[in-house]
Design goal:
Elements lengths: L21 H13 L3 E5 L2 E6 L4 H8 L5 E10 L18 E9 L6 E8 L5 E3 L8 H12 L2 E3 L25 H5 L13 E2 L5 E2 L8
Parallel strand pairs: 2-5, 6-7
Antiparallel strand pairs: 1-2, 3-4, 4-5, 8-9
Length: 211
């Protein structure tokens, strides 16, 4: 056994190193390649932030590497909430619409959400239908439910609602008659379990209850 002092040469270094994040690297490279204005990686999902004026151009470029169009939809970020409790800090909320498109690879797990922000006053964005035929249905739905206009899509006719229907049901400001009767999220009426008598039979919860 050696009496030499321990120099600590074999001890692990106290210096910490930050492991590379492949998803972050992928998101940054993709955003740079398609000319996006930024990117976010949250909960294992890549979000590419797109200038609304370059929406079509950006999606067409990304579609070269991510040819599978999954879906297109929208989010209404609004302070005017008819249903629900709203947000904790409405004054800090940037009111807008977000249009979101999901593109994926057909050969790997690569994919991303492409997101563009639109003003609530006039939510208009270019249509993907001249380049991605499958986007037509999704744009019609987003128009019907949120009132978003897609320049270049001349067939924004209703999918679900009657032709004379007024309003856009997925707007946070849209009143729901069912919630006027019972406030959101709705009280759940739960009946208590019946009492069990000593003889093994189920008795009424209240002795005076009529059968």
């Amino acid at each position: 056994m050696s009496d030499a002092p321990d120099t600590g040469a074999d001890a692990p270094s106290d210096a910490t190193t930050t492991a590379a994040d492949p998803l972050e690297d992928y998101a940054a490279a993709l955003a740079d390649r398609v000319g996006a204005i930024g990117h976010v990686v949250e909960f294992g999902t890549v979000r590419i932030l797109v200038d609304a004026d370059r929406w079509v151009e950006t999606i067409v470029e990304a579609n070269k590497d991510l040819p599978f169009f999954s879906w297109l939809s929208a989010i209404d970020w609004s302070k005017d909430v008819q249903v629900g409790d709203g947000v904790d800090d409405p004054d800090g909320l940037d009111e807008r619409f977000e249009v979101i498109c999901r593109l994926s690879s057909v050969e790997s797990s690569d994919g991303a959400h492409f997101v563009a922000s639109l003003p609530r006053e006039k939510p208009t964005i270019g249509s993907l239908t001249p380049h991605i035929g499958g986007a037509a249905w999704h744009e019609r739905e987003a128009h019907e439910m949120f009132g978003i206009m897609f320049d270049g899509n001349d067939h924004l006719v209703p999918l679900y609602l009657p032709d004379d229907f007024q309003g856009n049901p997925l707007l946070k400001s849209y009143p729901l008659i069912s919630r006027e009767v019972k406030p959101w999220p709705g009280d759940v009426d739960v009946e208590g379990m019946p009492e069990v008598d000593p003889d093994g039979g189920a008795g009424a919860a209240d002795e005076g209850e009529e059968s």
